[in-house]
């Protein structure tokens, strides 16, 4: 890749349609070489060689490469530390899309500084959210830390301009004509195939229309299962928001929650490792390793909790209602630090997103912005009665729950609830 070519760097935007950075790269430059980097700083931190997310990315890139080759170009796949790799590349310019996580920001700053020393322009574009950074803030310019006023301002700012698609297809002739490029096997990356099946990249409007009535029942498919595609950008957030505006305001709110947490992480990057409310970092967590293991493996003796954990371990998916129940159970019933649970979800979730995962866990623990109050302790039995009344979800994942072989409860609910309240009160006053 010489100085006559422009690189478009795919990351969380693995699609050719309605891709902001790709559109600007192709419109403003030619020829353009599409590049993806398997970032070893990220891959080396993954403990499971059968990580389903790597398999999903690998499968998606293979499909993307096929699409590009029908256009007379290909996908250049690299492996290594991006900063190191860019030292040996000398393009005319590099285009990519914004990323808001602390590691990604540091990586992009380092890449930009390196390229600028070589006289190479580095352009990033907004693509994975509708509004970012300081686009939705209070009148005084400070970021919102409560969802409802943030969502009101978000909706007030929304105009058709922000949902307009980027017509990449007009400029695909600007891709550099290159032959079929080598494509690494998972084994070349230190991983292996999983045989996992992934949710289809299909926007099911029928589900979206009923979402407000079906979203809380884990035994039925009342949610779209699009979260993995949103996470890796295989669908356009602008297209999803267009559908949400037409079909269901409750589903739109879920998309706005995602942006709210992304902007919390942007403005308050310390939440990656610390409580948004600093006082909560003084809580005397019990952090019992044996009890944590029972939670991880779905052996707590609470069927709705165990069903959720077993589904997560088996599939990489957990229903959002069940995520709240399992997170509340870990932090309140077992008094285990929310960071332990967040890290475990980070290892297992197909749709793992740092901002949303962190926000959800801190919400459950009471330590986050706009979080559930510390004295809200989900009762697993009542949650089951309300959201899995026929035990259909539980029967699927915990078939032995009525047998004598089923695990005894790791702790009694009323005792655990009072213990949690006492512990929180002692710290918070």
Automatic annotation (TrEMBL):
Alphabetical list of InterPro entries matching this protein: Crypto/Photolyase_FAD-like_sf, Crypto/Photolyase_N_sf, Cryptochr/Photolyase_FAD-bd, Cryptochrome/DNA_photolyase_1, DNA_photolyase_1_CS_C, DNA_photolyase_N, Rossmann-like_a/b/a_fold
Electron transfer via tryptophanyl radical (site feature) positions: 285, 338, 361
Cofactor comment: Binds 1 FAD per subunit.
A single MF term (Gene Ontology): deoxyribodipyrimidine photo-lyase activity
Top-rank lineage group of the source organism: Bacteria
Gene3D superfamilies tied to this protein: 1.25.40.80, DNA Cyclobutane Dipyrimidine Photolyase, subunit A, domain 3, HUPs
Photolyase/cryptochrome alpha/beta domain: residues covered: 4-130
Cofactor(s) listed: (6R)-5,10-methylene-5,6,7,8-tetrahydrofolate; FAD
Record keywords: Chromophore, FAD, Flavoprotein
A single BP term in Gene Ontology: nucleobase-containing compound metabolic process
Pfam families for the chain: DNA_photolyase, FAD_binding_7
Annotated binding of FAD, by residue: 211, 223-227, 251, 254-261, 351-353
PANTHER family: CRYPTOCHROME (PTHR11455), CRYPTOCHROME CIRCADIAN CLOCK 5 ISOFORM X1 (PTHR11455:SF9)
Record-stated family: Belongs to the DNA photolyase family.
The protein's name in its UniProt record: DNA photolyase family protein
Record organism: Dawidia soli
């Amino acid at each position: 890749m010489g100085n006559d070519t422009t690189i478009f760097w795919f990351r969380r935007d693995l699609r050719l349609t309605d891709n902001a950075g790709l559109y600007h790269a192709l419109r403003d430059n030619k020829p353009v070489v599409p590049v993806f980097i398997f970032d070893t700083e990220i891959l080396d931190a993954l403990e499971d060689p059968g990580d389903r997310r790597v398999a999903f990315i690998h499968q998606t890139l293979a499909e993307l490469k096929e699409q590009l080759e029908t256009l007379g170009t290909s996908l250049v796949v690299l492996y290594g530390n991006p900063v190191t790799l860019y030292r040996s590349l000398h393009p005319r310019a590099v285009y990519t899309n914004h990323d808001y996580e602390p590691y990604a920001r540091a990586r992009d700053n380092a890449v930009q500084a390196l390229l600028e020393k070589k006289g190479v322009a580095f352009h990033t574009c907004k693509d994975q959210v509708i509004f970012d950074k300081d686009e939705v803030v209070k009148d005084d310019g400070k970021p919102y830390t409560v969802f409802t006023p943030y969502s009101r301002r978000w909706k007030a700012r929304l105009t058709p301009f922000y949902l307009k698609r980027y017509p990449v297809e007009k400029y695909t002739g600007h891709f550099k004509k290159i032959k079929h490029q080598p494509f690494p096997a998972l084994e070349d990356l230190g991983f292996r195939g999983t045989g996992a099946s992934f949710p289809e990249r299909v926007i099911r409007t029928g589900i979206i229309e009923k979402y407000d009535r079906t979203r809380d029942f884990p035994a039925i498919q009342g949610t779209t299962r699009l979260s993995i595609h949103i996470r890796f950008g295989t669908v356009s957030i602008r297209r999803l928001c267009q559908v949400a505006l037409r079909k269901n305001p409750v589903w739109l709110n879920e998309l706005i929650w995602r942006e709210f947490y992304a902007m919390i992480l942007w403005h308050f990057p310390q939440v990656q490792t610390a409580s948004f409310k600093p006082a909560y970092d003084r809580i005397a967590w019990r952090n019992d390793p044996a009890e944590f293991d029972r939670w991880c493996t779905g052996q707590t003796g609470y069927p709705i909790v165990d069903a959720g954990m077993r589904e997560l371990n088996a599939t990489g998916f957990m229903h959002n209602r069940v995520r709240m129940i399992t997170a509340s159970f870990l932090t309140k019933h077992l008094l285990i630090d929310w960071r332990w649970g967040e890290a475990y979800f980070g290892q297992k979730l197909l749709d793992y997103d740092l901002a949303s995962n962190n926000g959800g866990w801190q919400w459950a623990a009471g330590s986050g912005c706009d979080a559930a109050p510390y004295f809200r302790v989900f009762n697993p039995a009542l949650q089951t009665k309300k959201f899995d009344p026929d035990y259909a979800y539980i029967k699927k994942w915990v078939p032995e729950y009525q047998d004598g072989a089923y695990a005894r409860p790791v702790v009694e609910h009323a005792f655990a609830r009072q213990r949690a309240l006492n512990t929180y009160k002692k710290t918070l006053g």
